Amino acid sequence: MLDVVALGELLIDFTQISSDNAGTRCFQQNPGGAPANVLAVISKYGGKCAFIGKVGADMFGEFLRDQLQAISIDCRNLVMDSEHNTTLAFVALDDKGDRSFNFYRNHGADICLLPSEINFEIIEHCKIFHFGTLSMTHEPSLSATKCAVEYAKACGKIISFDPNYRALLWRDADSAIEAMKYGLSYADIAKLSIEEAQMVTGEKEPEKCIKALLEYDLSFAAVTMGAQGCLYSTQKFIGSYPEFPAKVIDTTGAGDTFWGTFLIKFLENNGNIQELSAQKISEIVLMANIAAAMSTEKKGSIPSIPDLDKVIAAFIKNKNGQN
């Protein structure tokens, strides 16, 4: 039995690592794509997971496949496409570690996944099915995503959703919001950035956003707010954490680290929100918040996932009220 199966984009993040006096930037090749990042956290923290998606049958696609296999992610449904190139993203960083993106995705392999290429048996044998919206920006991956989501729901799987909004990849904001609403209508648990939550709910205040999200019949919702920490809620209670202190270098993948940590710890604690106490959920979110902050202290997304023992040590120290 797999813990989590994720469907979506898998791409190359060329992350800025330096800039000389003339302003010439140097970039480092890293694996990227939010669903894959989430799985990487889960796998590194002891979970079993599989990825569904498509990359080019090129040097970048081979690199991505090898990177996932190296961290024990099941890649039997990673399709290698000889007709389309692997999608590339260039990630530039400002002096605070915040990101700006440029994508090379026209006819990229990740948006060419066909419904007929999905291995539904993998979905049958998982506990959680996870997806985002970037596989819904274009056909045929839009149809493939909906096909997989609806199958997972029919199989009674826990549906996990994180929009991972990137404005440059959408025709317009309304199209993105429509996809977010679709995802929320099928999700059981969801994580959104504050920007995404504001877009899809039309609210501005975080507390109003999360209350509006719960109207989609979610059992759990989290809103990540960068330097303002995170807000989370079930149908019974609401809680929050401030930003965990970190020496921020690169925020790429921090939200994915948060959600991957939450998912694996959620499964380790029965995987049923209704059966978890407010204190236990609070502890799971705290650990996710710590892991996300620690991930910002290194560059890249998958390479920056912190060691679990380091996260646990900080979690215990924080619980004991130590500085």
From TrEMBL:
Keyword Lyase attributed: no
GO MF annotation, one: kinase activity
Residue stretches making up the Carbohydrate kinase PfkB domain: 1-307
CDD domains: bac_FRK
Alphabetically ordered keywords of this record: ATP-binding, Kinase, Nucleotide-binding, Transferase
InterPro entries the record matches: PfkB_Carbo_kinase, PfkB_dom, Ribokinase-like
PANTHER family, per database record: HEXOKINASE FAMILY MEMBER, PSEUDOURIDINE KINASE-RELATED
Family, as annotated: Belongs to the carbohydrate kinase PfkB family.
Name of the featured protein: Fructokinase
